[in-house]
Amino acid sequence: MELRSALFIIGLVVIVIIAVITYRKAHSKPFSLKGRSGKDDFLLNPRTDEVDPLFAPGASASRADIDLSMTPEPEPVDEVVSIPVNEDVDVALTEGLAEYQKDSDLSGSGISIETESDDIPVLTPIESEDESVIKSELTEEGRTLDLELKAQPSRRDHRPEKSIDYVALIRGSQPIMRDQALSVYRQHEYNMEKASYIYGFNIINGLWCDLEHEQASGEYRDICLAIQLADAEGSISDSELHRFSQMSLAVAEELERPILFSLDHDEALAYARDLDRFCAETDLLVIFNLIARSERGFSMRAVHREVEKLGLVYSADNIYQRIHIDADGHTEVLYSLANMFKPGILSKDDDAANTSGLSLFMQVTTISHPADVYSDMIEDVALLTRRLNGILVDQERRPLNEEGLSKIHRKIVDISRRMESRGIQPGGQIAHRLY
């Protein structure tokens, strides 16, 4: 009689579980990932949600290597079934199962009854020793795979810089190979004096890529040509801008696609001249000179000793540099120290040599956080002035005091703010292209 009751209760539990699972599957919504469309969708719907490079912010944004749309949707997995205790019959059923577990040997059946904090019984499978080992091995393999995936470097989005480039955008709905666009571009690119670029929108990873550095097998939907409007040599000329426009039109004609320019010809020339004027106003090289009080000057031996105490690095150019290495391993020269007199080197071959003065200098626009770097350079200058018994002067050899140093600091802060307001980060990629 007891066995018959137990079998009846187990059968009832199984029926309840099956009913719950069936109900959930019937009323559940399919799981989907919201992301960029796959390759076929790109061809059918050429206007997806990618940012137009003509109107995108100047800074390039990084994206993940794996397109979410290419990730398969996971199938729903029923790991644990919980039975809520809301009615008397459910309470009776729970008590009956618990009582039966006490009196019967269910250890070999693969079923265990656990009670959560809110007294809701949960049916979970009992793992055998072999199953535990297998699951542990799978977990370790998953961790290893996860580490390998994370170790892969993520690709960057390469696109024109809106703040300094003149852009020609060639739209399309069908993919083209890299060399199909490059062939026409290379026929004209050598005529350009300013830096010019050609980009393609990769339909597989959803990134803009520099076609000059991409594999020939890549497929691209939209093509974008760009030329820098100003650099350290000045603004782009009328004739060169015209040549670039003609080259862009030739590429569009070869691809049989429409073309759109970011500005008209006269607007681009005016913007280029304004950009060049801005660069001339903000381009600042700070130079301090440290001259010796003694007629004998500074001994090279003392100079090398005291400068190296400050942590400056002796470079291949035979001068000293303050170096900063960021988390990605990129090296940045913050400021330099050289001989005040030509050819400017601080030779280590002759310790008996002397020099009458030293020069410290920094390029404000091409270093990160220039105001902070300036403060650090002032500290080093003050130490060298005291240790070498020198006098700090400006380029006109006029002594520098606290007021003069503060005035330079305020000017550096003002330049940094003006650059940032124009979308140019001091020490950033755009700044290095301009100055």
The major sheet is characterized as: 6 strands, antiparallel
CATH class of the largest domain: Alpha Beta
Mean residue pLDDT = 77
Shape: flat
Distance between termini?
94 Å
Outline the low-pLDDT stretches.
27-51, 55-128, 141-153
Alpha-beta content class: alpha+beta
Task: Tell me roughly what share of residues is in helical segments.
Answer: 40-55%
Please count the beta strands (DSSP E, at least 2 residues each).
Answer: 19
Query: In CATH terms, what is the architecture of the largest domain?
Result: 2-Layer Sandwich
Characterize the structure shown:
With 435 residues, the protein is of the alpha+beta class. The chain folds into 3 domains: 2-30 and 75-151, no CATH class; 165-280, Cell Division Protein Zipa, Chain: A (2-Layer Sandwich); 283-434, Cell Division Protein Zipa, Chain: A, CATH 3.30.1400. It is built from 11 helices and 19 strands. Strand 6 and strand 7 (208-210) form a beta hairpin. It is flat and about 110 Å long.
Give a quick rundown of the structure:
This protein has 435 residues and is an alpha+beta fold. The protein has helices spanning 2-27, 39-44, 88-103, 129-151, 178-189, 238-255, 265-282, 300-309, 370-388, 402-421, 429-434, and strands at residues 81-82, 111-115, 121-125, 165-170, 176-177, 196-202, 208-210, 219-228, 230-231, 234-235, 259-261, 285-292, 298-299, 313-314, 320-325, 331-339, 354-355, 357-363, 390-393. The protein contains eleven helices and 19 strands.
